[in-house]
Amino acid sequence: MPTRALTVAVILSLCGCAGLPPREPTAVSHGMLSVRARVRGAVIPFSGDEADSAVVEQLGPNGEPLPGKEAVAGLSGGGFVYFLDLPPGRYALISVSFRARGVRYRVNIPPASGRKEAVDLRPGAAAFLGTLSLDGRLPDFEVAVERALSVLGHLLTPWMRRPVVARDADLRGLDRGAQEEARALHAARQVLGATQWKRVVEARRREMGAPEPVAMKGLVRPKQMTLKAEAILSWRDTLEWGEPQRAGNGLVWTKPGGSARIAVFFTTAAAQGFVGYEAAVAEMRAAASTTDVGDQGALYEVRVSTHYGVAARVTSTRYREGTLVGSEFKVAVTETVLVPYPAGMYTARLRAAKDEFDEVLPAFREFLLQLVLGAPQKTEAKQDDIFLPL
Question: What is the pTM of this model?
Answer without folding.
Answer: 0.71
